């Protein structure tokens, strides 16, 4: 018996030793595995937490003007910007021990296995918030062992490299809530028309119940089923000690008001402007298409929604509904280059081609201010006289060129530069162009930011080389601001989904024009609205001067296929083009006036309520009263006078002698004679 007992003891000891050895090896292997996984997780580094997010575009006042989402609304907000009720509800129903485990809840996994075995089917999930987040971020939803292994590895990487609060924030920003909505901020907007920060207990519990089955538990699909799920969430919050039973009961009985997604149905504002913004994101910031469309960017633009609405309204009011003519408008602040309104066509849905940015059209006489700035550089003054008469120019190569004035009207006499720009005299312009040298106008236009190819020909003075509307608006802005370089600015700032600034606009003070000459050019451009410069024809802005309530400078331009009006105050530059896409000629009288009428209506309404700003001469400029026809210093005998500005030292010194006092007396006497006496004298 004693021998048998000893044998049994030996066998028992052998088994115990074998068990201890196995336990030791298993423990060692487990330790090595865990250490290996941790080392692997650290070696691989932190996986990126970013997922495709909606890029949102804002106007200068913070108004949302559009967004890219491509089938899914996704916004990223910080954990601190979420209602604590939403956080508590999610933790309570999805992963109550989230802050206690390291990515896997072993007790919950074991319980789920037992429940599944008892039911002989999958009835209970055991995924933690970290596991779900790993699945949302990196994995497909195929049910394979390889996917499970990948999910586990991503879970370990997340837990090893990120704080729990980072994981929770990421999870709440990526989880699917149905109806194409991802993340708690988008869900709060979609279901309740508010931000995640504003969610009540009842609303948070309703949302927290949806991810288990978004198409099943959505209150917009089945409210009764969603309410039952809400009560389960509230009960979980009580068990997790986030709520008292009384608070849970009160939340369960609270009436909920759903927005049915109306808050997220953002009307697209200024689609042509937004296309220009996206182009700038590519060319200026160097962002790729995917980042622009789904990078969760917040793009803060320069758009003034009020001005944009005015621009669209005035275009619609002015152009007859039966007309097929097209339009482009760009409004910019001359000092900053910020684009405040942009229209690239009459209907974006029918034609997204952006005529303000992409099209090149003949600018006509709107090119003349560049020419006359060059003239001022080379000795011209507002009083410089040249003859306006039919003229054929013989060029260096032996060819000839004959410019014509509008309707073949000519002064057949000398006119001043001030009159030439106000009346838009083509003969004067071509003479100036050829006197300066044809390369001068090209150089000045390029200096002012004209990017199109310009032909060095006599007709360039009359705007025969096509240019872009946006370039013309920039060039006029440089003249308007006293000669400082500006670029068209569409974007003030860009941030990523975390709020990190990726780009911020910085202004430049580079002086590229002589400020005195820029001002004199500006004052020359006020002439198109001043009837004292009328001569053989009326000033070109006469048809709209009655609608103007403040000083403007500008220039109109007309070709057979294009009609332009560009003008400004010190606060705003606006360029308007009208014409047909396929070079159809503008023959109707009303269509020839569209650009001017759109321009003046837009400027007046956009500036209404703002202080009337005048053009203030800089140092080195002097203003004197001259006779507008002779360009000489005015005398008391001159019937009309005009305050005209010159660079100091170039102002006229001779007095006008065209209106002797006796002629003035005789004129007055004749005016006093009766109509019968005047008629008798005529016979």
From TrEMBL:
Q: Tell me which NCBIfam families the record gives.
A: PBP_1a_fam (TIGR02074)
Question: Where located?
Answer: Cell membrane
Q: Which GO terms describe its molecular function?
A: penicillin binding; peptidoglycan glycosyltransferase activity; serine-type D-Ala-D-Ala carboxypeptidase activity
- Using the record's annotation, list all stretches that form the Penicillin-binding protein transpeptidase domain: 328-579
One Pfam match, given by its short name, reads Transpeptidase
Spell out the Gene3D superfamilies in the cross-references.
Biosynthetic peptidoglycan transglycosylase-like, DD-peptidase/beta-lactamase superfamily
GO biological process assignments: cell wall organization; peptidoglycan biosynthetic process; proteolysis; regulation of cell shape
Q: What is its main location?
A: membrane
Q: Which SUPFAM superfamilies match?
A: beta-lactamase/transpeptidase-like, Lysozyme-like
Q: Which UniProt keywords apply?
A: Carboxypeptidase, Cell membrane, Cell shape, Cell wall biogenesis/degradation, Glycosyltransferase, Hydrolase, Membrane, Multifunctional enzyme, Peptidoglycan synthesis, Protease, Transferase, Transmembrane, Transmembrane helix
Domain Glycosyl transferase family, first and last residues per copy: 64-237
- Spell out the protein name for this chain: Penicillin-binding protein, 1A family
What catalytic activity is recorded? Answer: [GlcNAc-(1->4)-Mur2Ac(oyl-L-Ala-gamma-D-Glu-L-Lys-D-Ala-D-Ala)](n)-di-trans,octa-cis-undecaprenyl diphosphate + beta-D-GlcNAc-(1->4)-Mur2Ac(oyl-L-Ala-gamma-D-Glu-L-Lys-D-Ala-D-Ala)-di-trans,octa-cis-undecaprenyl diphosphate = [GlcNAc-(1->4)-Mur2Ac(oyl-L-Ala-gamma-D-Glu-L-Lys-D-Ala-D-Ala)](n+1)-di-trans,octa-cis-undecaprenyl diphosphate + di-trans,octa-cis-undecaprenyl diphosphate + H(+); Preferential cleavage: (Ac)2-L-Lys-D-Ala-|-D-Ala. Also transpeptidation of peptidyl-alanyl moieties that are N-acyl substituents of D-alanine
Query: What Gene Ontology cellular-component terms does the record carry?
Result: outer membrane-bounded periplasmic space; plasma membrane
- Family affiliation: In the N-terminal section; belongs to the glycosyltransferase 51 family. In the C-terminal section; belongs to the transpeptidase family.
Residue ranges annotated as transmembrane are 18-43
